[in-house]
């Protein structure tokens, strides 16, 4: 079995193509210093209103440790999405550890704005 079963609470889950787009963007955001890694940091960006969108790992164990984030996202109207692997998310963040949640942050005049907007749209399409 190639993919382990994904926790049904991990919704919306990005498919392979969207996951790749998201992880590429996370990697670029990391280079542009527009990335916060970890559940606590992601929560802070949401509370401060500086998050473009949140990416979480569906294989966080137990998943409940990040399930407060979707609620907060919905409060703040911030798109959020799950990718399958915390290992892959960690690699995209440029760290050697698994990462279960990241936040792409808002930055004035950011070069990534077009990619961020198209990814936000793709994520919002998953939610309908």
UniProtKB/TrEMBL annotation:
<dbReference type="GO" id="GO:0031428">
    <property type="term" value="C:box C/D methylation guide snoRNP complex"/>
</dbReference>
<dbReference type="InterPro" id="IPR002415">
    <property type="entry name" value="H/ACA_rnp_Nhp2-like"/>
</dbReference>
<keyword id="KW-0687">Ribonucleoprotein</keyword>
<dbReference type="Pfam" id="PF01248">
    <property type="entry name" value="Ribosomal_L7Ae"/>
</dbReference>
<dbReference type="InterPro" id="IPR018492">
    <property type="entry name" value="Ribosomal_eL8/Nhp2"/>
</dbReference>
<dbReference type="GO" id="GO:0005730">
    <property type="term" value="C:nucleolus"/>
</dbReference>
<dbReference type="InterPro" id="IPR004038">
    <property type="entry name" value="Ribosomal_eL8/eL30/eS12/Gad45"/>
</dbReference>
<dbReference type="GO" id="GO:0042254">
    <property type="term" value="P:ribosome biogenesis"/>
</dbReference>
<dbReference type="GO" id="GO:0034512">
    <property type="term" value="F:box C/D sno(s)RNA binding"/>
</dbReference>
<comment type="function">
    <text>Part of the small subunit (SSU) processome, first precursor of the small eukaryotic ribosomal subunit. During the assembly of the SSU processome in the nucleolus, many ribosome biogenesis factors, an RNA chaperone and ribosomal proteins associate with the nascent pre-rRNA and work in concert to generate RNA folding, modifications, rearrangements and cleavage as well as targeted degradation of pre-ribosomal RNA by the RNA exosome. Involved in pre-mRNA splicing as component of the spliceosome. Binds to the 5'-stem-loop of U4 snRNA and thereby contributes to spliceosome assembly.</text>
</comment>
<dbReference type="GO" id="GO:0000398">
    <property type="term" value="P:mRNA splicing, via spliceosome"/>
</dbReference>
<keyword id="KW-0539">Nucleus</keyword>
<feature type="domain" description="Ribosomal protein eL8/eL30/eS12/Gadd45">
    <location>
        <begin position="22"/>
        <end position="111"/>
    </location>
</feature>
<dbReference type="InterPro" id="IPR029064">
    <property type="entry name" value="Ribosomal_eL30-like_sf"/>
</dbReference>
<keyword id="KW-0508">mRNA splicing</keyword>
<dbReference type="InterPro" id="IPR004037">
    <property type="entry name" value="Ribosomal_eL8-like_CS"/>
</dbReference>
<keyword id="KW-0507">mRNA processing</keyword>
<keyword id="KW-0747">Spliceosome</keyword>
<dbReference type="InterPro" id="IPR050257">
    <property type="entry name" value="eL8/uL1-like"/>
</dbReference>
<keyword id="KW-0694">RNA-binding</keyword>
<protein>
    <recommendedName>
        <fullName>NHP2-like protein 1</fullName>
    </recommendedName>
</protein>
<comment type="function">
    <text>Common component of the spliceosome and rRNA processing machinery.</text>
</comment>
<comment type="similarity">
    <text>Belongs to the eukaryotic ribosomal protein eL8 family.</text>
</comment>
<dbReference type="GO" id="GO:0005681">
    <property type="term" value="C:spliceosomal complex"/>
</dbReference>
């Amino acid at each position: 079995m190639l993919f382990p079963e994904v926790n049904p609470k991990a919704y919306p889950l990005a498919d392979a193509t969207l996951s790749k787009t998201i992880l590429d963007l996370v990697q670029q955001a990391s280079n542009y210093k527009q990335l916060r890694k970890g559940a606590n940091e992601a929560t802070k960006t949401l509370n401060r209103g500086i998050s473009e969108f949140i990416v979480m790992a569906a294989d966080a164990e137990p998943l409940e440790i990040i399930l407060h984030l979707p609620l907060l996202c919905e409060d703040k109207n911030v798109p959020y999405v799950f990718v399958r692997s915390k290992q892959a998310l960690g690699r995209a963040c440029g760290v050697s550890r698994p990462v279960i949640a990241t936040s792409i942050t808002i930055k004035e005049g950011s070069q990534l704005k077009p990619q961020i907007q198209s990814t936000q749209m793709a994520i919002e399409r998953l939610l309908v």
